[in-house]
Every structure is written in C-alpha cells, then in structure tokens.
Amino acid sequence: MATSQARSPGSVRSLSVGLSLTIVVLGLSAMGTPSARADRVDDAFLNAVQSKGINFASPQTAILAGHQVCDELDTGRPKSEIATDVSGSSNLDGYRAGYFVGVSIAAYCPRHHVHE
Asked: Which segments constitute the DUF732 domain (predicted)?
C-alpha cells in the first residue's frame, strides 16, 4: 500500500528490509480469512516452495514472505536486489532465493512478471 508520507529511499529500504526480516524471523501469522481462490494460489505457492527445499516456520510465514516480495517490487526495487536480500537474511543460496522471488511473483503479483 502506498503512504502519503515522504521518506528518503534509504529509510524506505531499511524499513522494507526490517519488515522482511521480521516476517521471516518471527513467523507472523496474522492473516485474514482466505477465499477459495487464495487457498488454491497459496497451496500452489507452498508446494512450489517446498519442492525446492525452501522451508519456513509455518505456511503462513511463507505466504507473508511471498507477499512481502510483491510489496518490495511495488516500491520499485529490482528482483535481483530482493533475491540478494532474501539470500542474505536466510540460509538460501542464490538460486533458491531467486526461485522464491520468482514463485512469489507468479503466485501473488504477476503484474511484475516482466523482465528487468
């Protein structure tokens, strides 16, 4: 979501990275009631992530992290930078971090499925 407050790019990036780390590390699971379509999308996303050996504390944590990828892309950050952040804040190698970004886009924000 866009905010009306002006922030410097550095503070936005720090806030975004901090939020990503908080979601991944703490495993927040505050989610609304999903629709049937969301259940299918979430299930496909979780299956894709798990098929590459990417594990989270809970399914809700994985789903929130996937949505966070989209939030970061919405701010204009490049996919490669987000994948680097994912790799740096987890035990994922570059391939799996990039895969996670890609599968997050496919599931939750296909509008970002264009090449950089």
From this structure: 42-110
